[in-house]
């Protein structure tokens, strides 16, 4: 099916149409089905377009940041434990209590977020060093092909006429 000249692709239209109408909420089924995946796909394509061709480009340098690499190493633990930590913090130190303690909405919420992030990273690091890295050592017992590095994959292919 072809679009009329100047018409946007249906997936982009669905993503744009859901946002102004109060979309992109968990109860909005069209946004869940089309809008969020479309935005995710467009974002991934944009990052790949910007970072892919030039490994020394500004975005590649930004994404190769030490903190992001550190976070990537422990990202599974962060993903796994953040929900449990948030639930526990709501019981142990709710943000309303921290707001009363600091006397400020901004300071109380900032403290809550800082404690949440710090405890998430602490548990993720503990999990990685106590559990995950020992399982990852088992990879040496299995053979697998490593993907080529970027510099190795840029080889010119010639064909004979």
Describe, in plain words, how this protein is organized in 3D.
It is a single chain. The chain has 161 residues and is an all-alpha fold. The protein has 2 domains: 9-64, no CATH class; 66-138, no CATH class. Helix content is 67%, strand content 0%. It has helices at 10-18, 29-51, 58-63, 66-73, 75-92, 95-102, 105-136, 150-153. α1 (10-18) packs across α2, α5 crosses α7 and α6 crosses α7. The protein starts with 9 loop residues before the first helix and ends in an 8-residue tail after the last helix.
In round numbers, the mean pLDDT is 78
Distance between the termini: 36 Å
Q: What would the principal axes of the Cα set say about the shape?
A: extended
Relative strand content: under 5%
* Share of helix, binned: 55-70%
In short:
By secondary structure, this protein is mainly alpha-helical.
Q: What topology emerges from the helices and strands here?
A:
Elements: H1 10-18, H2 29-51, H3 58-63, H4 66-73, H5 75-92, H6 95-102, H7 105-136, H8 150-153
Protein traits:
161 residues; 2 domains; 8 helices; extended; mainly alpha; disordered N terminus
């Amino acid at each position: 099916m072809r679009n009329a000249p100047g018409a946007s692709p249906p997936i982009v239209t669905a993503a744009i149409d859901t946002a102004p109408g109060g979309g992109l909420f968990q109860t909005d089924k069209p946004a869940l089905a089309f809008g969020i995946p479309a935005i995710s796909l467009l974002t991934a394509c944009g990052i790949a377009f910007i970072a892919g061709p030039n490994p020394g480009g500004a975005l590649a340098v930004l994404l190769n940041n030490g903190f992001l690499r550190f976070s990537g190493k422990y990202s599974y633990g962060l993903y796994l434990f953040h929900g449990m930590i948030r639930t526990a913090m709501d019981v142990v130190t709710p943000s309303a209590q921290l707001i009363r303690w600091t006397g400020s909405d901004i300071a109380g919420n900032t403290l809550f977020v800082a404690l949440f992030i710090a405890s998430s990273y602490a548990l993720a690091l503990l999990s990685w060093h106590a559990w995950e890295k020992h399982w990852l050592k088992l990879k040496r017992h299995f053979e697998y092909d490593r993907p080529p590095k970027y510099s190795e994959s840029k080889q010119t292919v010639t064909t004979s006429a």
